[in-house]
């Protein structure tokens, strides 16, 4: 019994030692777990802080990007506006260059005219010296008067030419009409001569009366013919004088 009791005590002692060891290990594990929990809590707090900082940094970055985009848009608008202004100024500059070139050409022409006019002015001054004119303005006034007179004369000649042409056409028409009329008179005269010859050769008791009538009619025709011919020659002479 004493031996079994000893074994039992040893066993209990061993169990107690194992229990103490297990409790020590638990305490160690608990202690290590607490430290690890503290480390994790610190890490979590640090992570939360970094997350907050990162969020703030992201928000600042977003605002910076938005501001940068707005600046880019404003810069593009300003650039576009400047480009339009530059194109407008380039167009105005090109037009100004073209106008300047045109003015230069006009200036060269005016310089040439001034040179010619200076020579002509010297000539007019010499004319004034050797003539009855008092100054150059009087010479130019006389020249303008002569030019107007020449223009009026040319216009009068043109009108006279037109009137002469109209008179010539009228004369031709009148000649044609009178020639036709004379031709009719000649035909009538031939018929009267024929009838006259028939009256002379016939044995009509009224031959003497018919003969006297034919002679009177013939004389009247000759008289009218001579009057028409004289009138025609008078018109020809008048037209000729007018043309001269």
TrEMBL record:
Q: Coiled coil as a keyword?
A: yes
Coiled coil regions in record: 146-195
DUF4200 domain span = 9-129
Q: Which residues cross the membrane?
A: none
Q: Which UniProt keywords apply?
A: Coiled coil
GO CC list: cytoskeleton
Which Pfam families does the UniProt entry name for this protein? DUF4200
* Annotated GO biological process: spermatid development
Domain of life, per the record? Eukaryota
PANTHER family hit by this protein: COILED-COIL DOMAIN-CONTAINING PROTEIN 42 (PTHR21683:SF8), COILED-COIL DOMAIN-CONTAINING PROTEIN 42 LIKE-2-LIKE-RELATED (PTHR21683)
UniProt protein name = CCD42 protein
């Amino acid at each position: 019994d004493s031996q079994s009791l000893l074994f039992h005590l040893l066993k209990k002692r061993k169990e107690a030692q194992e229990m103490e060891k297990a409790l020590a290990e638990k305490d160690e594990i608990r202690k290590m777990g607490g430290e690890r929990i503290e480390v994790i809590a610190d890490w979590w707090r640090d992570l939360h802080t970094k997350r907050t900082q990162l969020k703030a940094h992201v928000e600042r970055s977003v605002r910076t990007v938005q501001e940068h985009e707005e600046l880019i848009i404003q810069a593009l608008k300003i650039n576009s506006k400047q480009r339009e202004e530059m194109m407008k100024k380039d167009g105005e500059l090109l037009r100004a260059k073209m106008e300047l070139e045109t003015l230069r050409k006009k200036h060269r022409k005016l310089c040439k005219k001034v040179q010619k006019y200076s020579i002509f002015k010297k000539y007019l001054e010499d004319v004034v010296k050797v003539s009855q004119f008092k100054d150059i303005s009087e010479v130019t006034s006389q020249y303008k008067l002569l030019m107007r007179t020449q223009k009026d004369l040319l216009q009068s000649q043109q009108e006279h030419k037109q009137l002469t042409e109209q008179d010539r056409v009228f004369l031709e028409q009148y000649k044609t009409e009178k020639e036709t009329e004379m031709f009719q008179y000649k035909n009538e005269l031939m018929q009267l001569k024929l009838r006259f010859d028939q009256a002379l050769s016939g044995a009509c008791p009224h031959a003497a009366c018919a003969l006297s009538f034919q002679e009177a009619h013939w004389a009247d025709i000759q008289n009218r013919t001579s009057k028409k011919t004289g009138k025609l020659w008078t018109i020809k002479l008048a037209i000729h004088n007018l043309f001269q």
